[in-house]
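thought: fold this chain, then report.
action: predict
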Amino acid sequence: MNHELPPEVESLRRVPFFEDLTPEDLERIAGIGQQRTFEPGQPIVAKDEAGGGLFVIMSGMATVHAGGKDHTLGPGAFFGEMSLLANRPRSATVTANEPTEVMTIEAMYFKPFLIKNPSVAVTILAGVADRLREVQDRVDRMDASPSRGDGERTEDNQAIND
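observation:
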């Protein structure tokens, strides 16, 4: 029996810490989500804003402004997972580039959902741990790369001049 999942469930499956959940779990999560539409130039979330929720882009494009850099997000991309789980202020501003439809899952609904669905909580924790490991790997690679120039360096990180 192979039935097609609703678009919001398929979009949730693309979120790394939801990808191992069953279709039934995803449908339950979609049931606590809300669809919202943002117009071009409209902020979806603002840096330092309070409030916890995950956003999954269903259609359209948005730009994340963080750390002096911009990153473009499209359908299936997500942001706000740390706010969803940890009730911290937003670390970035995300703005719609074009008409953008998102599903938002607010922490106030998600936490009780996790209590009632412990297998989902365990799967999500594993996904969050994987994501943290990826971030740590990136930080380690940045620490290992030379800070200036392209030339060779000695053991004490002094540039070797030709």
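thought: worth noting. Strands lie at 34-38, 43-45, 53-59, 62-66, 69-73, 78-79, 93-96, 100-106.
final: tokens above.
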